[in-house]
Known about the structure:
Blueprint: H1 4-10, E1 20-22, E2 25-27, E3 34-38, E4 45-50, H2 54-70, H3 78-94, H4 96-107, H5 111-132, E5 139-140, E6 147-155, E7 158-162, H6 168-181, E8 185-189, H7 196-208, E9 215-217, H8 222-231, E10 237-241, H9 244-256, E11 261-265, E12 271-274, H10 281-293, E13 305-309, H11 313-325, H12 345-360, E14 364-367, E15 371-372, E16 380-381, E17 384-387, H13 394-397, E18 404-410, H14 413-420, E19 430-432, H15 436-445, E20 452-453, E21 465-466, E22 475-476, E23 486-494
Parallel strand pairs: 7-8, 7-10, 8-9, 10-11, 12-13, 12-19, 13-18, 17-18, 19-20
Antiparallel strand pairs: 1-2, 3-4, 5-6, 6-23, 14-17, 15-16, 21-22
Helix pairs in contact: 2-8, 3-5, 3-7, 4-5, 5-6, 10-11
Amino acid sequence: MYNQQEIDKIRYNSIPEQKLLIGSKWVKAKQGKIQNIISPINGEKISEIQVSDEADVDEAVKSSRAIFEEGQWSNMPPAAKKKVMHKIADLIEGNMLELAVLGVRDNGTEINMAYKAEPGSAAETFRYYAEAIDKVYGEISNTSNDFVGLIQREPVGVVGAIVPWNFPLMIGAWKIAPALAMGNSVVIKPSEAASLSILRLGEICLEAGLPPGTLNIVTGNGRTAGQALARHMDVDVLTFTGSGNTGRQLLEYSAQSNMKRVYQELGGKSPNIIFSDTDNLEEAAKVSAMGIFRNSGEVCVAGSRLLVEDKIHDEFLNLISNFSSKLKIGDPLDIQNDVGAINSESQLQSDMNFVKKAETEGGIVELGGKRVHKETGGFYMEPTIVSSVKKDMDIFQNEVFGPVLTVTSFSNEEEAVQLANGTSFGLASGVWTANLSRAHRMIKKIKAGTVFVNTYGGSDNTLPLTGVKQSGNGSDKSLHALDKFTDLKSVWMKL
C-alpha cells in the first residue's frame, strides 16, 4: 500500500493555480476571479481555484451538448467505451497515493480512510460501470403476434453533477461513471471546499481517451456556478449530494428553468440501535464509535444517534466512551492518527455550537466537545459523546456533520422504532441484536434507505445508496443508479 515516508515525499508538493476544464482546454474563469484553497491540516493556503459564473457554466454545458450530439461518446461502440472507462480506473489506481494525499490536503480526511474511500472506491466504481455497459439490455414486451413492443434505454444527454467536500472523488465517481456508461456527457461542479481531486480526475479522463467535452469541470461556489448549472436550460438531469437547504433550492431552480429531473442525496441523522441481547457489546461499541468518528463525523450515513436499550445503557455508554477516548486525533497525513481534521473553521464552529446548545437543553457531555491542536492552525475537534439526549432537542433532530454522537435510551422495541423514525431524515440506520426475528421486524419498520445489521457502515457497488423522507431520492451505486441517466423509449411496431 504505502508508508509514512512515501506520504511525506509528496505531502508538500506545490499545487499550481487550478483552472476549469472546458472541452480539451484548461482555462481561467472569464471574470478572472479566484478563491484560495485553505488546508484544514494547518489553516494554510495551498492553491487557488477559479470562481466560475454563469458564462463559464454556459460554455461548459455547450461543450457537453456539442460532443453529445456529435456522438463521439454517445454513439461509441460499447466495447470501446469499456476500454476507456477501464483505462480511467487503471490511471486512478496508478496514482492512488497522489490522489489520496491531494484530497486529504484539501478536505482533512485521515489518510488511512481516504486511500480506500477516495481513489480506491473511485477506481472500483469506474470498473463496475464499465462492465455494465454491454450488460444492460432493452426489453421486448409481451403483446399480440400482430405487434412487437420494444422498450429501449437511451442516454438523457447532458448531466449536471454537484458534489460535496467530504468524499469528492468517491461521490464524484458515483455520478460520473454511471452517467458516462449510459452515453451521456457530464458537467460537474465540485465543492469550493474540496475541488482538487475532481480536477485531477479530469486530467486522468483526458489521458484515458475520454473524448474532450464529455466531461467538463467548473469550480466555484454554489450561489454562482451551482445555481447556473441547476438553472441551465440545456442540462437534462441534475444529480446532487449535499444539504437539504441546497436541495430545496435546486428543486426551485429546476422549476424555474426546463423542469430537469433532480436526483438528490441530502444527508441524514441516522439511528444506531443497540439491543441488550447483542452478542458482543465491546465489538458493537468499537464499530459504532468508528461509525460516527471516522472522517470526523463528516459522513452522510454516520451513525450519529445512538439508541441504547435501558438495561445496558450505562454499560454500553462506558464501553463506547472508553474506546473513543483512545482515538488519536491529529494530522490526517500521519498514518498513526485515527481521526483527521474538520473540513473548515466554520464547520468546526458549527459542530461545537451544536454541543453547547445541547448542554443548555439538558444534554450531558460525557466525552470531548472541545477544539484541539489549535496551535497547528488546523481545524480539529475531540470525538464527542452527549448523553441524556431527548427527541425534541436540536442535536437529536438536525445533522451536525461532525464528530458528535448523541445517546438516548429506550425501554422496548416499539419505543426504539419511534425514536429511530423520529426525525425528517431517512438515509441509513443500524440494528444490533442476536434475535433474527427482531432484526427482520426492525428492518421493515425503520424508515431508511439502508439498514446495517450487527455492523455499521460499508457495502459495495452492488447495493444502492438511497434516501427516503428528506434524505433524498434516486440511487447512487448499483445498477439502479443507471435509471437516473437514461430515458425509456417505447416502440410499437405493426408486423
